[in-house]
Amino acid sequence: MTIAAPSLFISLSGIARLAHVQRPVVSVWRTRAASSESPFPPPVADDRGSEVFDARQVAEWLAQTGRGNNPHVLADAPAYARFDATGRGDEESFHALTALVAVRAAGAPIGALDRDQLLDLADELDPDDVCVAGEVDGLGDDVVSMARFVEVLVDGAYSASAAFESLLGDRFRDGRRALTRTALGAEASELVNELAVELARSNPFADPEHPLFVDPTGACGDLLVGVLRSVAEGVDVGVMTAESGGFAGRLLRRRLLAHGMPHAPLTVSATGEFAAEGALVHVAQFPTPDRPTMTAGQILASIENIALQMDDAQRGVVLAPAAILIDGDLSPDAEAIRSEILRSGRLRAVVRLPRGLVIGNPRQALALWVFGPAHAAVSLADKWTLVADLIEEPLVPATRSDLVSDLAAAMGDESFIRAHAFRFARRLPTSVILAGSGSLIAAEKPVAMVPVEAAAARRASAGLPAQLDAVIAGLGDGAPVTVRHVTVAASPRFLPQAALGSLASARHVRCLPGARIRHDDIGTAAGYPVIGVDELTGASLVGSRTIDRLLLEAAYPAARLTAPGDVVFCVSPQPRAWVDAAGFSVVVYPARILRIDTSDPAGLVPEVLAADIERHTSRDWKRWVARRIVPTERAGLVDVLANVSSERAALAERMRRLDELANVLVDGVAVGALTTAGSDAEILALSKGTM
Hints:
It comes from Homoserinimonas aerilata. By secondary structure, the chain is of the alpha/beta class. The protein is built from 26 helices and 24 strands. The strands form six sheets. A nine-stranded mixed beta sheet has the order 6-5-4-7-8-10-9-11-12, with helices on both faces.
């Protein structure tokens, strides 16, 4: 029996992908070939204003003319084709297509089967209608022609699993919002894949040859399938998924069938209880594709439900918006749930990830929560949580590898944590995080100075004395006098670095806004100096712009004057800072003021803070990390820095005068007013006359 080949449609962008060229190249081919002996095939339909072509005709034209960079264009054409002229039809048709691909993956070819045979095959494969039977039955008489298309599609993609992924890949181009709203970029997917696999591999309770992964939502197909495909070949991997009745759950189960990945159902009760036993790894993302508008409370309640049902042999990886997992401004109910999760002790690590990881919402920042053993023998007062902020770190392979190493170490006890050299994560007492009212990551409060362990002190300071001696030797007699009194500390003590947001929340530093002053009110006559972005970036000299004192009082009564030692800063076009040693300046918006209480024991020094600000690239000043100085060292450091600053200013003035001297010499000799041909006693002399 001869089966009629199904019609295959392709768009201009599909042609470009088929030929492995850029989209504009296809338009150039059409134009140049229009009057040739082999014109480009004409369009056969219109899809909402876009032309659609016969995929076979286009493939034959490409092969005949030798256009493009794909030598297998005839065989590959079905993989880039459409079932119909309008983007593979509606959502129902899309789900039916994926269902037929799953049916095709489970058995023999389906292109020659009639409707009843296809329905029987789907019922046999899915007797309880959890993933394919309903979709195939809903097609009606179209199921036969669609089955023929699927057969061609699978042949063109070389496997059912590749055909299934091809259909999913088209969800972005076809504008399927329900399938793309929570879709992750490759970097985020790879991070979760690598982390989940490592947590399974390093779990002392697990069998590395038989890892088990669970999706307690039953809807996180991209995450779960990515993890399963990352497991090494030859490993007998187990899969459990919750029996979600939503479209995303059914799609996930079809996807597992297409990939030949057997899975067991995870029965979840109406109140959320489920039975998942063994040394497994939970993998979940919120909000889920079938519940994209989940509130913060709903997301946190779902995560808490997972955490409460874990035991010390289980691990968990959860992705969700950073605004919910890390940042403040939650409702009291949501904040209470997040606090309970922290108190459980199972939340071992909290990581802020960079923006741009959600394809449909590139401005959204995600966060990662990693769950593990609760260490029941450790009291709440002594529990800890690892935190890391990667908002400015691209998730390149090296970054992912080091982060995964840090997070795998978070599963260990205190001795294991102490032995690990962390790159990104730092340990915070859970009690400190719970006591904070803002971001979990910025919850670190300044603590009293602590002695550095002898071995660590030797390692950290081993090269500093030699560096100091070398610098002083290079300066010679020009070295500031106060620097010569600096010596190596006998018993090193330090204050840990802290985020400015944390320091501001604890009122160790105040951030004051600049005044919004009209440009016309700023002049150059006598008055208060004006400090703005121009002064901070060097576009204007400090003190060159002013505002009249009476005008400031009358027109801008809320404007603040700086105090001596204030740090004036801006975040754009790049972070810049300047210490106003004299004070009594007017800061103009968008520049702002950081005011430090010199009697506060937090250890902030204006000159050090200004230098730290200029080391950052982020525009979020609350995440800037500041170094702090032990109070007993602050006065001495300020004196030395003041001496160095004075020497620098004197040197700058000498350089200015030398520049002026060079200019006068060149100008004078050029016009004949000066001569360099004088006697040894007269290095420079005015000429006796002019020529």
